[in-house]
Structure formats: C-alpha cells, structure tokens
Description:
Layout: E1 2-5, E2 8-14, H1 23-26, H2 40-51, E3 60-64, H3 70-77, E4 82-86, H4 90-102, E5 108-110, E6 124-128, H5 134-149, E7 153-158, E8 169-178, E9 185-193
Parallel strand pairs: 3-4, 3-6, 4-5, 6-7
Antiparallel strand pairs: 1-2, 7-9, 8-9
Helix pairs in contact: 2-3
Amino acid sequence: xxxxxxxxxxxxxxxxxxxxxxxxxxxxxxxxxxxxxxxxxxxxxxxxxxxxxxxxxxxxxxxxxxxxxxxxxxxxxxxxxxxxxxxxxxxxxxxxxxxxxxxxxxxxxxxxxxxxxxxxxxxxxxxxxxxxxxxxxxxxxxxxxxxxxxxxxxxxxxxxxxxxxxxxxxxxxxxxxxxxxxxxxxxxxxxxxxxxxx
Length: 198
C-alpha cells in the first residue's frame, strides 16, 4: 500500500502491512523483507536532505544499502544531479524502483556488494541503517574510509545501534523519527563520516 512515509510526508512509499503478503515474495525460509519497513537511519537521512537540499543539489549521490529507496528519492527531490541506489537484495532494488516511480523521480539501481571494492565515482555517499551487526560494521567502516580518502563526502544515518563506529563520526543533526520494531519515535542522528586519521 502506498502511504506517506512517517516523519517524511513529502515522500510516499510502498510499505509492508498485515495483509501485504510480502512473505510470499521471499518464502518461509527466505530473508526478512527489511526494505519494506521504515528504519530510523534512512528516515533521518531523508528528512535531513529535504531540510538541507544544498548537501546534494547538483551533486552525484551514491546511496549505500538503499532498501526502500527513501534516501535516494529524497536526494532526487532535493535536486541531486544523479543518484545511484545500491542494495544487495534484488527485492529491495525492485521496491526502490517502484518507490521512485511513485514519487515521480528516476535514479539508477544496482544489486551489488561494493564493500570490498574501490570507491564509486560520486560526490556524496548516503549510508543509512547498515551498522546493525559487528562484522558488517567493520566492512562498511573500511569501505567508507577508502571512499573518504578518495574525496567522497559521506553522510550516515543511525539511531545509535551498538556497532556504530562513533570514533569515525561527527554529529551533524538529530531528529526523533519512527524505527521498525520500536513503539513511538526514537532519537536518530545524521553524522559526517571521518576516517580515524582525518
């Protein structure tokens, strides 16, 4: 069902609900459709970008772990020159494409694991809700360190999950937003990523 995103009513998303039948897409043994729910990191980044469009206006954006595509949609609405939305889950890519069309924007979508590769050709990287597991957090931090060394500006959105590499993050803004699995709203922050050496 297409509904305004909580805390970001400028954007409408197809989201899971009790009768959406999304479990049929992944099967009983398949991964949970995380892209079908509202997560605080993506929500806080989307809200920040729409409130501060100058951070993406006229720039090439790379949205790592795009999920539903909420951040990619926000970036295009805020005037980004282009957006590359990336997720390892092909169903997330499909959801992001549907959400882009529903919001009247267009961006490129890839289902690729970039974390062990070279920095992508972009000006700004947005990273929401990827620091939820220690091993993944180490891979993401190493990748972001390489990207920052290549001159990419990196914005991270997160509600303060345990593996978050706080030593690499500079607080930029905060909003109280909903988070999947939580009642009410949670305090979530936007950070600028900095390598330990910078």
